[in-house]
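User: Phage replication initiation protein, Zobellella endophytica:
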Amino acid sequence: MMRGPSAMANRVIHDYLSFTWSPESLVRMKRLARTGAIIKTPRPVGVERFSGADSELNRAFMAEMADMLDEAMGSAECIAAGVDYNDAYNDIVHHYGVQLLDALCCAEVEAFVQELNEELSPTGVARFSYEARQGGMYGYSRSATLKIDAANAGVVAWGAENGGCLVSISGAGCVAIDFARLHGIVQRLPGFKITRVDLALDDYEGVAFSAARFREMALEGLFSGRGRPPKYTYIESGHINLIDPKAAKKRYGMVPDLGCSFYVGARESGKVFRAYEKGRQMQSQEHPEWQRAEVEIRSKDREIPLDVLLNPDAYFAGAYPALAGLVEQVEPERIRTFKNLFRVDRQRSIEAAAIQAGRLINYLARWEGISPGDICHRLTSHLGIDDIPARLKRPVNYELLSTNGTIEPAF
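Assistant: Predicted structure for Phage replication initiation protein:
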């Protein structure tokens, strides 16, 4: 459910944010790659002349090159080769030129940083910049350190072969961000996707919650769902002290005065909860009992909604039942996993078929008056009952089956 920012100030803070996006040209290439097609048309002459030495191209020229690419792709002749998505995408990227597409990605990063300065620098002095690093990272061919007010605040990376651009903002960087304004910027980015967000709630007095209390809540089932039991780790550190020095038999006790931490979940599943004694970690004199609870959410088998930038309280509260009561006057919002990958793959197959064969079917139906049944028969009569897309050859979730045993229709 999409809503505006909460009327009350959010108590939950963003402690990490990572997202990706792509230039429009790459978005179109990804769509084409999903059809499994390869391009037969020779690359445009202007692209042939482009070389990596042209790194200082101005924005006007880059915009012109992007328009030329879009025009070339719109008139390109494709062959339905049925190749894997990654192979098809790699073929398309190399067809139009990796160096040119990398330059388009770099121009996207430059434009994004400039917009951050325009929207998030209230004094008029540019706060955001990036400093090139050696090589790439996370599979991208180029990378740089993101700086806010001249301090390290995260990383940016880009490269056409890995799909476009990446920005990761650290906890220190998140403190300097107005997330309502950031929301307005990123919602305009083509192919935008949040890949990770960390949400944190602080209890500076140490009375609302603790790692030990969360451990008890786990035993009450407040971190468990209907799936497999989550993993957990409980860490307690401190000193082994003598209890009674005057006793005939010396006895010792474990005093956890160095802190406790409690973890639920695993990164490979896409969601992790952490609770720890932040005051002891930071050796805070002002808030020695400071407790922190964090939820790390990754885009594995789930789509993280853009609304999480505006309403972190709701998504923190909805992450686990144990957290629902920690943030007052908030309706918890759950970020659900894709219930069945079959549905996702089926939808992608339909979209790919629409791109690859939609125009031909439209012509046959509207201009030659052939019935949908006859078109379907002509296009599938040579196929056997088991000749279906490889991605759909999997067991089907029981909930997708209708009462007569057939699969629930896609549309």
